[in-house]
Amino acid sequence: xxxxxASKLKxxxxxxxGEDPDHPVKELLSHGAQTKGWSSPRFCEYxxxxxxxxxxxxxxxxxxxxxxxxxxxxxxxxxxxxxPTGHPIPDCTQAAYSRxxxxxxxxxxxxxxxxxxxxxxxxxxxxxxxxxxxxxCYVNKYNMFSQVGLIAFNCLGESLGPDLAMGPPISNxxxxxxxxxxxxxxxxxxxxxxxxxxxxxxKAVAMEDYEEAKKLxxxxxxxxxxxATLAKLEExxxxxxxxxxxxxxxLIKVEIERIRQSVFAGVAGGNMGPSPMxxxxxxFDNMPITTRAxxxxxxxxxxxxxxxxxxxxxxxxxxxxxxxxxGGMGGMGDRKST
Length: 338
Hints:
Blueprint: E1 7-8, E2 11-16, E3 38-39, E4 48-67, E5 75-81, E6 98-104, E7 115-134, E8 149-159, H1 180-185, H2 188-206, H3 210-242, H4 246-268, E9 298-301
Parallel strand pairs: 7-9
Antiparallel strand pairs: 1-8, 2-4, 3-8, 4-7, 4-8, 5-6, 5-7
Helix pairs in contact: 2-3, 3-4
């Protein structure tokens, strides 16, 4: 049987111990450059818990966390639950979870709390529920209310059908287009288009239509270039709206639509000639906006190059997940960014 590439898993949030009214947990259901993310209640008790339910049984391969720049948990634990064959799914708070392990986050002092840590953990577990447990926060002058927060949360893996109860062969292929960084870099329209093009490219490769695959790769590269400009314009439009400068917002909206129509039309028509992006969006770089909103902190990745499955003993490498005796309390490794 051919290996199945891991892709983004859909889920819904079925339990949360608490949330800040300005940063509700539903923020974790969508990703984008302007995502506010979830924060725990002010002066909350720890641990805080979020439980997500997948659309069906899945084989979970990777979990990604984009931490808040100052509301940082000292440790995060992961637990999964998958009911035995033929058994009903219980209430998420009553399920008998299996502990996968834990990960530790950096205090972020070295960046001056200006960067957000992106942590990716490679796992191998069947699941219907994923429980994420957040331990106490780091203390710093910017976290006045002793909260923990996540800007974004992402799960990758494969859905399991009845004939895949034992799971498909393990795949090391995880598309960078399903990475959380994709949603945080590009606007949602561009990100969705990029994923559609990548799926078409993979299909062309599987059919050995390499000429079509080459065209699609060029289309992806071209759209990524356009996406960077679109993301900047979306940010300027958001600032204009926040400042009630609706004339500027209208002009930027028109430019965004013009760029999308030009690039998408070129991609759909197979026109891979010189990029039409030259000069587009430049007229808005110096557009005066009276009050500029804070720029979101940059991401810094703490993703190890490879982690062994949680169920096995690693053969070496930073951040490798390991199981303790009798499948016990193995840790995910405390990889720090450098």
